[in-house]
Amino acid sequence: MHQFQSRDTSEMVAPLIAGMAVAAAAYAGRYSIRAWQVFKARPPTARVRRFYEGGFQPSMTRREAALILGVRESTPSEKIKEAHRRVMVANHPDAGGSHYLASKINEAKDMMLRKNKGGSGSAF
């Protein structure tokens, strides 16, 4: 009878360990699904870079030009050119962008590079 009892204990331990492993996997899956739902429910502005929202002034200022290009007013000219290219690629009329926005982006680049000789350089 002693031999039967030890065999019975080892036969009971394996299903118990398997059951605990299944329960742990179920809890991990449940946690993962909830974490994914929380991640997907975040507002999109939390992970998207904020850009200048418009409302252009009648005559562009250096501050407005810097906001349009996403740079600081004291940014070196090389960085201004890189920023202009990045913004223009995203808003180019040939890629479905607006001619008006493209002209404002070009005006902002000219203003930041001090090529603007007074007045509004915009065609609009």
UniProtKB/TrEMBL annotation:
Say yes or no: keyword ATP-binding present: no
**Cited SMART domains:** DnaJ
Taking the first listed entry, what is the main subcellular location of this protein, grouped into a coarse class? mitochondrion
Q: Residue ranges of the J domain?
A: 64-117
Q: What is the lineage of its organism?
A: Eukaryota, Viridiplantae, Streptophyta, Embryophyta, Tracheophyta
InterPro entries in alphabetical order: DnaJ_domain, J_dom_sf
SUPFAM superfamilies this protein is in?
Chaperone J-domain
Q: What is the designated name of this protein?
A: J domain-containing protein
Query: What organism is recorded for this protein?
Result: Hibiscus sabdariffa
- Entry keyword Glycoprotein: no
What residue intervals traverse the membrane?
12-33
Query: Where does it live in the cell?
Result: Mitochondrion inner membrane
